[in-house]
Amino acid sequence: MRNVLLATCLLLTAVLSAGCKSGDGPPLAAASGKVTLDGNPVEGASVSFEPVNGGRPCSGMTDANGVYHITSVEQNDGAPVGDHYVAIIKISGEGASTPAGTDASMSLSDISASDDKSGKKEPETIYLVPRKYNVAKTSGLKVTVPAGGSSELNFELSAR
Q1: Tens of pLDDT, residues 34-43
Q2: Can you list the domains of the chain with their CATH numbers?
Q3: At 106, is the secondary structure helix, strand, or coil?
């Protein structure tokens, strides 16, 4: 019985790790650019690409110059070739490090501060990039990752 359990665990480990290789899935291409808000670089923002035709989202963080590099599986390996909806998020405040709600169908930007049953108010979240950019499918941001990749996938955001 013990040998069967060990063999099952080893087989399960092999199957799961095989599904996580970067060679699996759609072809990737380098994807990077710069994020600005009213002309100023945005440092510390999360940039997420969500494939229009479905698939796993990928993301990157902006540096001090507002530059990001997308990671799908391995550091800076790029994004699937094709069209993507884009979300850009930068938040602070006590709510930025607190889990937001329990409904998995809601994104962080869909959850407003409210009182719970104990009368305790949820921690405040401050949106340093306007909330309209926080949900990929409704942000109005879209990008095409070409087969050869691109370092010019720039986003010029407005606080208005």
Answers
A1: 999 999 999 9
A2: 25-97+119-155 (2.60.40.1120)
A3: coil
